[in-house]
Structure formats: structure tokens, C-alpha cells
Write a structure and sequence with these properties.
single chain, alpha/beta, 38% helix, disordered C terminus
Length: 301
């Protein structure tokens, strides 16, 4: 029998979820491929993958899926790897470049613009190059490991600004060629929490309904649980690849990312879908269909 195909986001925050498949007891059981979030969703949409970690918003746009329960890439407060960076105070931004790699965070930023910052910038999609994005726009959405690198670079060299932003020198953020000496940096999840009082769910595992069995769900839970015992090892490996301090990466995985779909995270996800539908970013906010698992394996709902 052919192995099931899994499409995985190639970011540090996904590593604990797949550790059991890449380094643990489930190694070799599934066919793994790594890409950016939007392409994970596309692989599931086109049938190139059987299971994928998809941006949360994409569940509402792709039919025939079921969600593997209890697991997510979420953040309770400050995520540090999703940033809106502006060359001027955010309320003055007229054009905003959005990293085309993540459709879920794009929607989250559009909600913040409409409901939190009360602005209506022109949005444009762009590749994941923060300096190029800021040369073409007033503000930019930067995601993933590049955003984490910026966060770690400015955390000890920035000052609090208005409405929770951090103000830093462009050179400290590694963006000296962005077209401004000073930058205004907003953590997307922190702004969402300020607006709603809820955490943000950024991505979760979804599978084609015809292969979404309890055995598959159990394997993914086991991989996540194994990964959570390997945070120190994952951080040390990533430190070498990303050229960032292992301790800072470990703190990020332990403190900024939540790998569960608990009750509070599900409430945040519901609020996200409802607001997305109100802004017509999705047709409607349909409820999640969960993969059935054994008793006690899922307590999020």
C-alpha cells in the first residue's frame, strides 16, 4: 500500500509537530514534503497531498476535509514570528505588502486593519523579502523564520511606541535598505489578543475526508507528543541552520507557540472565522469537521 503523503510547512514552529515523523518512532511511515503554508493548502486542494498543515483560513475554502484533533500552531499572546512592520505609525499606512506565503495571516491582518487599527490600506501580495516589500509599500507583513530573526534582533534594542508597537532602528531589524531609518513593529497575535481577548490559531492538520481515520489522527498526536519532548534538540539543530541562539529559539517554541487546540484556542478560531466571514474573506464560517478518535484523545470541544 502506498504511503500517505504529508505536506509540511518548512518553518521552525512546525518542527515539534513532525518530529515523530522525521526523527522518531514514525519515521518512514509517511511520505513527507516541505514547503510554505499556502502551498501546503494547495497540495491538499489539488490532491497532491493526503494530509497537510494548512493555514486556518484555508479550511473554509477547501471542501472535503476533516481536522486532526487537538493539534495546532497557535499562540496565546505574543507570537514573534508574525510581524507587521511599518515605516510610519500604522494608522498612516496607505499601502501594505502581504507575504504571499501565508493566506491565514493575510486574513488576520486585514481583520486588524478594518476593526483594530481602523485603516483601509491598499493591499498587495509580495514575495518574502522584507526590505523589498518596504521599498514598495508603507508597511509589510513578514512571517515565519525571517520575522523571528527580526524579533530577536530588536527585542533588546527597541522602545515601546503607541498602541503596543515597538519602535526600532531599521538597522537593528536588519532592514537598513528598507527606505526608513525608524520602523514601527507590531506583533500580529499580540494585536489580535488586544482586540478580542483571545488567542490566535494559525494553522492545523487537515486531511482528505476519505483517509481521515482514527489511526492517522493517533499517529499525528504521537508525533506531536514526541516532538514536545525534543524541544531542546530541535532548537539546537535550528540554531545552527538559522544562525540564531539556541536558547532564544527554545524560548520561542516553549513560550510563544502553543501546539494544542484547547477550548480557548477554539474560541479564538471561531472568532477568526466569524470576522473573516463578516469581511467577506470567506463565504461563510462553517464549523470544523473533526476526525473521530478514541475516548479521551480529544478534549478541545
Amino acid at each position: 500500500m502506498a504511503r500517505l503523503r504529508i505536506s509540511i510547512v518548512k518553518y521552525l514552529n512546525t518542527a515539534p509537530l513532525v518530529r515523530g515523523f522525521t526523527h522518531g518512532p514514525l519515521r518512514g511511515k509517511y511520505d513527507l514534503s516541505f514547503t510554505v503554508p499556502s502551498q501546503c493548502a494547495e497540495a491538499l486542494r489539488t490532491g497532491a497531498a493526503d494530509v497537510a498543515i494548512i493555514p486556518a483560513i484555508e479550511y473554509q475554502r477547501i471542501g472535503g476535509l476533516a481536522v486532526l484533533p487537538g493539534m495546532a500552531i497557535a499562540s496565546k499572546n505574543q507570537v514573534r514570528s508574525l510581524l507587521v512592520i511599518s515605516k510610519r505609525p500604522i494608522q498612516e499606512a496607505r499601502r501594505m505588502a502581504l507575504d504571499l506565503s501565508s493566506r491565514s495571516t493575510q486574513a488576520l491582518v486585514k481583520i486588524l486593519c478594518a476593526e483594530h487599527w481602523k485603516i483601509t490600506p491598499e493591499f498587495c501580495e509580495a514575495g518574502p523579502d522584507a526590505e523589498a516589500m518596504l521599498r514598495e509599500a508603507d508597511a509589510a507583513l513578514v512571517i515565519g523564520d525571517p520575522a523571528l530573526r527580526i524579533s530577536l534582533g530588536i527585542e533588546s534594542r527597541s522602545e515601546p511606541g503607541a498602541a503596543g508597537e515597538l519602535v526600532c532602528r531599521a538597522a537593528d531589524a536588519g532592514l537598513a535598505a528598507a527606505g526608513a531609518e525608524t520602523l514601527h513593529v507590531h506583533d500580529v497575535v499580540q494585536e489580535w489578543r488586544r482586540m478580542t481577548g483571545l488567542p490566535a490559531v494559525l494553522a492545523f492538520w487537515a486531511a482528505r475526508r476519505d483517509i481521515a481515520t482514527a489511526e492517522v489522527a493517533a499517529d499525528f498526536i504521537a508525533s506531536r507528543d514526541f516532538g514536545l519532548t525534543q524541544i531542546s534538540e530541535i532548537s539546537a539543530e535550528a540554531a545552527e541552520e538559522l544562525q540564531l541562539p539556541a536558547g532564544a529559539l527554545e524560548a520561542y517554541l516553549r513560550q510563544s507557540i502553543d501546539f494544542s487546540l484547547d477550548e480557548e484556542n477554539c474560541r479564538g478560531l471561531d472568532a477568526y472565522f466569524e470576522r473573516s466571514a463578516a469581511l467577506r474573506l470567506i463565504p461563510r464560517a462553517r464549523p470544523l469537521e473533526w476526525v473521530a478518535v478514541g475516548a479521551g484523545a480529544h478534549s478541545a470541544r
